[in-house]
Amino acid sequence: MPYNFMSTLEQSLYALDWNNNTAVVIITLITYEYLLQLEKEVTFVWKRQWSVMTYLYLVVRYFGIVLAMVCAVWGGLIYLPEAVSYGMLLFMQWGFSVYFCLAEVVLIWRLYVLYNQSKLILYVLLGLLLPVVALYVVMDAFLWSRPSALSVQEVMLTPNVTECTTIHHIGPMPAIYISIPIICYDILLVVLAIAVLGKHLKERKEARLKPNTYLVMIVRYHVIYFVLNLASQAIMAILWAHTPIVVLKLVLLYKDTAPLIIVPRFIISIWDTHANDKFVHNSVAFEECVCWTSPPQLEQPDIDGSEIRKEVHTCP
Question: Which residues pair with 301 in a beta bridge?
Fold first, then answer.
């Protein structure tokens, strides 16, 4: 039966069914991803000396898992009183803002390394991040934390079925306006990443060398994250519009899984690639390694020109 011709009870049960199905998908995806990356995490985190990026990885990894599980159980998968549901909703929205800010810090730290650990780049980008953090605080306080803008209502569908649903009292325009400066900041980060890649490709072409694998990988992840965050900001606005239940649940499924999977992968996949490089001896941290900032000279003649030797980089 088409959704528009359903009774109010049928529509609510239909929405609850979609909510529970997407909740199961979220739990399955996050659990599978955790188990899939666990061996690499043990190798590159728990058996190594910790660095700044290690701490960032652990925060986005485990805080992301907590966020995903809260998103999965909220709304009807298990019974939650209205007050608890409202508190969980605030935790989810403020939590995603914290998570996206942490993801920005990961990108900033990678740019800092790409620009030869330039303190100027680091301080400028961190300084510009402060207004972005302030915007997230304003958005969460103005849009999500005021009962006049958003409220939670407990609805008894049948004597045995109860769900909590959100009621939006304002339109999507405030969310759209607030997201514009955040998107502009992400554009700045991706432009800086592409600029350093362009310079690198030009230098390598002139020297007739292949592009550096690690630099290309980092820039690729910057672009992916930019697209990811752009979609996430659009979703934040969609939540305030009256969208069909199927569309709403699918975009929420994306928001509750994709960022929480991709950001930790961004970090650990670089470590994994670096560890499997046949020209690398893992003795220091990746951020300090010369293997991705200077071209490796694989073969060079000895002083007398009679033998060929291989130069192996000592890497992080």
Answer: 308
